[in-house]
Amino acid sequence: MDIANIISKNLADWMATTPGLDTLQKVEAKSGIGFGTVRRTRNGDGNITVEKLTAIAAAFGRTPAELLTPKSSGNSKPAPLEAVPDSTDPAARELWLSYCAASERAQAIVDAALGRQHAGADPNDPLRSVVSGLLTIGTQPLADGDTRQEGAA
Q1: How far is it, in rounded angstroms, from Cα 44 to Cα 21?
Q2: At a CB cut-off of 8 Å and minimum separation 6, what does 43 contact?
Q3: Are 125 and 109 in contact (CB under 8 A)?
Q4: CATH tag, 3-68
Q5: How many Cβ atoms from other residues are within 10 Å of residue 59's Cβ?
Q6: In this predicted model, what pLDDT tens digit does every residue of 32-82 receive, in sequence order?
Q7: What is the pTM assigned to this prediction?
Q8: Where are the domains of the chain?
Q9: Does the first or last residue of the chain, that is N or C, have fewer Cβ atoms within 10 Å of its Cβ?
Q10: What angle do helix axes 126-139 and 104-113 make, rounded to 10 degrees?
Q11: CA 32 – CA 25 distance, rounded (Å)
């Protein structure tokens, strides 16, 4: 798939899952990019500039890299910026985007380790205990005299 088609598919998916930006006119108004450019981008026609690509991605609260990255075939879950608990925290945002890009199995394991229900989670998955152990290590208080930073192994 060429890059124009990847951008087109991602933009169409974002528009379909974002009610406030579900039309070309709404994307035009929020991004400040002309209607024709938005239409051509969604249709996979022409070559969009980096500046315009950035403005369109920003209208959705996303990065240009997200617009350029094909979705993994096994995961179609959208990762809107609004879903991140603190969208001003770059680490939280990166963690959320990594979770959304992960396989269904990885998401199920993380969800189970965090005590959340996830369809398709295998309670006997050996990686589940590994993730649970890692989460436990990262949340244990430091012993007196321990100079390691919290969460460091």
Answers
A1: 18
A2: 8
A3: yes
A4: 1.10.260.40
A5: 21
A6: 999 999 999 999 998 899 999 999 999 988 888 888 888 765 444 444 444
A7: 0.51
A8: 3-68, 81-139
A9: C
A10: 50
A11: 10
